[in-house]
Predict the 3D structure of the following.
Amino acid sequence: MAKTLSLSAAVLMGGLFVSSAGGADDTAPPPPAASQCLQPGGWARVDVAPPLSANAVSVIADMAQREVVLLGEQHDDADHHRWQLQTLAALYAQRGDMVIGFEMFPRRVQAVLDRWVAGELTEAQFLEAVEWGRVWSMPAELYMPLFHFARLNRIPMLALNVDQKLTRAIAAGGWDTVPEAEREGVGRAATPPEAYVDFLFDIHLEHASMRGDKRGAVQKTDAEFRNFVDSQLNWDRAMAEALARGVPVDGAAPGPLLVGIVGSGHVRYGHGIAHQLRDLGVDRIGLLLPVPASADCGRLPAGLADAVFAVPAQPRPTPPPPRLGVSLEEHRDGVRVAEVAMGSLAARTGLRVGDVIVEAAGAPLKRSTALVSLIRQQPAGTWLPLTLQRGGETVELVVRFPSQQ
């Protein structure tokens, strides 16, 4: 989903492991120090307390026996996608019957994914047909190696998501206000764990503060928050149902290994997709996450995942291309702002959901891809004037791109 209310911005690293009660075992080795547990380029099991360093072969062998494996990501981190690719390759070597599901695609483009895997489309044709610039705001080059891996090996790709229109409708009025015919076949989500609600409330508070709301004025009982939870649960449920359809019923022949490429927020603690999968009768689920190699292994929260991979730090000699931090969609008069990321350049500029950008740099704007390309080519320290329609009024804004540090 092209999203900014994303649960997948980063893995939260707070919390402590608590050792299990019981008598001392003089024969057991002492728990590994944090520096021994999480080495750059290595794995650690975090489904135990304290966490333990793990052999890559043993982690992959374990995950290959599951029904569904979820690989989390921070969407704009290139190393997370490289880790996903190597993990996919390792799993595929163990279990060649595989289906890869992607959060990035709404289910309405499933036929396009099938044509891509069959080798019928060029990259440009594929990205245009799936409306990449409209439905997913991240650079396509981050994901193309994953898509090529599926095409090269003829591994089916599965569109896990629903259309943005449904998510926005639920966020606006709640699940019950959306007619059944407009729910894209998604069923009612299972009641979430309270810890997940707390997590979502923290995200909701951040959005509220961006609007200038005082923290104490926002409550969990507010209709706006309940609707926000409904929209996130529908998101999790939709992806879980898409994956669960590939899991054979009891007594049937083993099915393919279903691997989900999704944001880390949908994976952490098993509160998101995995919780909904269990409600659908799928229990053999693997949860894998990338974390910074600098993370304090001893402070990785218990149950964060089955295992984590320590992504080594790398120098960044050049700044990444500028990003506005919005989700865009086509509009008859220009390009509509569907969502605005917290703390983003768009938020600081004053862009709002529902704004229709009609001009950029003094030129008419008709396609979201044109705006994305313009922004990515914008030199550091420059200004980009935008003309937009807001509530029947014309508004002039200037995006001020930060200077290089």
About this structure: The chain is about 30% helix and 20% strand.
